[in-house]
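Summary for the lay section of the report: proteins are chains of building blocks that fold into shapes. Here we show the chain for YdcF family protein and then a coded description of the shape we predicted for it.
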Amino acid sequence: MAAGYDPNARHDALAPRAAVWRALRTLALVTLIGGGLAIAGFASFLRLVPSGDHGGAERADGIVALTGAAERLSDALRLLAAGGGKRLLISGVHPATTEVELSRAQPDYAPWARCCVDLGRRALNTAGNAVETRRWVERHQFRSLIVVTSGYHMPRTMMELAREMPDVALIPHPVVTDRLRGEPWWRDWATAKLMGGEYVKYVAALVRVRLAPRMSSAETATAGHAADAPRS
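The coded shape description reads as follows.
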């Protein structure tokens, strides 16, 4: 053995490098597993998203439409006019919006807008829509509800509503927007971004619902208050 050679010196020099490689392998494995779970979850979410418009023959005690795409309001008023429900709640309306503006925007349904539509102006998000809807349903003692919102938004909406109203029958009426009615969503960056963003919101809502099956009073006060009182 050469004078001054220490066999442990090489081992000590290689130890940090081996530790780095082990950490990188662990990180790669965790990333791979996490990516696989995310892809599987996204695929499951896509199966929950309705792929086409509803026929519009649903019947329930009431109808709720969540504000957003213009098609939601048109479909909800069409259902109301066809006798799909006794009253319609439009949840998440801008505070400055009036019943007169609603009638002007949908002149074909003006008689129903004047008699049987309630505007909920307090909800700021989907959780708030659910709180607003629950209080409206309780006020009218409804036991069934048609839910009108965009197809990609329907899974999260139904989950939030079911959390607030476990004893109310919820009937989904998905609205497919023009953006999703055309070419497949994955071919358009804006649409793909929309779907990816909604999936992230769905997962966040799912975790929150699992951890807290029903909103606390503090959350309720933050998310939204009761819908405006119905007009006579």
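Put simply, here is one thing we learned. The beta strands are 62-66, 87-91, 117-120, 144-150, 169-175.
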